[in-house]
Design a protein that fits this description.
The structure holds 3 protein chains of 3 kinds. Chain B is flat and about 75 Å long. Chain B is built from 7 helices and no strands. Chain B is an all-alpha fold. Chain C has one domain. The chains are: A alpha+beta, B mainly alpha, C mainly alpha. The interface between A and B is medium-sized, with 17 and 20 residues.
């Protein structure tokens, strides 16, 4: 997939994954693998960005004698998903335009 | 390279580039590697999957705003250094020449002991025939001591010479007006 | 192993050679049984004189 397009979708994909259940780094990548490829080094900046705008929170949990960071979606994150979905109409128009079926005409 | 090596190496490089929240990255990659290893990969495979230290470092640096040291402060410092040159210049020069002299002394010692050692060693062979084995053994012992000292001084000379070269290079880079890469 | 580069192993080997030489020297020195007093009183020209 086009990297520019992918970049915009990744954040939302991670949010959507976390909306279904709280999760951790490795599991997020494994779950999203069939849908969209995320490398381990690109996931961290995404998580950090989402943490910064408080779209997600994190919580340390002990797993097999080590700490694992679990991420949960917040209301701000859920808001972001709904905004993305509501913007879809606009995206669809653009898509039509690109395909050459000008709906206005 | 196992997981710990990877993390130590990454930590060192992050520190060198002044990445502030290095620990967050280390925690993240530590957890991730643990998860990969838990899923059945070996340490090596897990690190390969992540892409190796260099790749991870590049990813982090491209994402972080790495602070490159200010040059204006450095320029100010250089000005003071230049103004104080008559004061500290001779002192530094004297120190430098002293160090050079010491290193040169090491070289002379190395050459003297080395040449003497070889000479005594060769002559100890002569002594075997001229006198007896005991005398030759004595001389051989002395020759080995001299050769040993020669090599020790030679190694010290190389070490100190390299040290001086490296520190000169470091100083030159540190005080050169060009911005560090 | 390049002797013109600093190498810890070479340094250790040199110390060992030195010690070996010292041991060899002391053993043969005591076996030779020089009259040290005599050597010193002749200021190094011991080999030219009878002692």
């Amino acid at each position: 997939m086009n990297t520019q397009l992918k970049k915009g979708l990744l954040d939302i994909c991670v949010l959507a994954e976390l909306e279904r259940k709280e999760s951790y780094g490795y599991a997020i990548i494994q779950d999203l693998k069939p849908l969209i490829e995320i490398s381990e080094s690109t996931l961290y900046p995404i998580l950090k960005r989402l943490l910064n705008k408080q779209a997600i929170t994190s919580k340390n949990q002990i797993h097999n004698n080590r700490i694992r960071k679990y991420y949960q979606i917040t209301d701000i994150g859920k808001q972001e998903i709904t905004e993305f979905i509501s913007e879809w109409g606009q995206v669809e128009k653009i898509f039509q335009f690109i395909k050459g079926e000008d709906s206005n005409g | 390279m196992d997981k710990t090596d990877f993390l130590i190496d990454l930590q060192k490089k992050l520190k060198r580039y002044g990445v502030k929240n290095a620990n967050d990255y280390l925690d993240y990659y530590s957890e991730y590697l643990d998860d990969l290893i838990e899923s059945g990969l070996t340490d090596m495979q897990a690190i390969d999957r992540v892409g190796g230290v260099q790749k991870v470092l590049l990813e982090i640096l491209s994402d972080e705003d790495v602070v490159i040291p200010e040059t204006s402060k450095k320029a100010m410092g250089n000005l003071f250094l230049a103004l104080g040159l008559p004061l500290w210049g001779p002192l530094v020069a004297a120190l430098y020449i002293t160090v050079l002299g010491l290193i040169f002394a090491l070289l002379v010692c190395a050459l003297a002991f080395g040449v003497a050692g070889v000479w005594v060693l060769i002559s100890s062979l002569v002594v075997v025939f001229q006198m007896n084995v005991l005398y030759a053994m004595f001389q051989l012992g002395v020759a080995l001591m001299l050769l040993g000292l020669g090599v020790i001084f030679e190694q010290l000379f190389i070490l100190s010479g390299k040290g001086l070269f490296d520190s000169s290079k470091y100083l030159f880079q540190k005080f050169s007006p060009r911005e560090a890469r | 192993m390049n002797i013109f580069k600093f190498n810890k192993n070479i340094l250790v080997a040199a110390v060992l050679i030195f010690l070996l030489g010292a041991i060899l020297m002391f053993i043969s020195f005591s076996a030779l049984g020089f009259n040290v007093q005599n050597i010193l009183s002749h200021l190094g020209s011991w080999y030219t004189t009878e002692f």
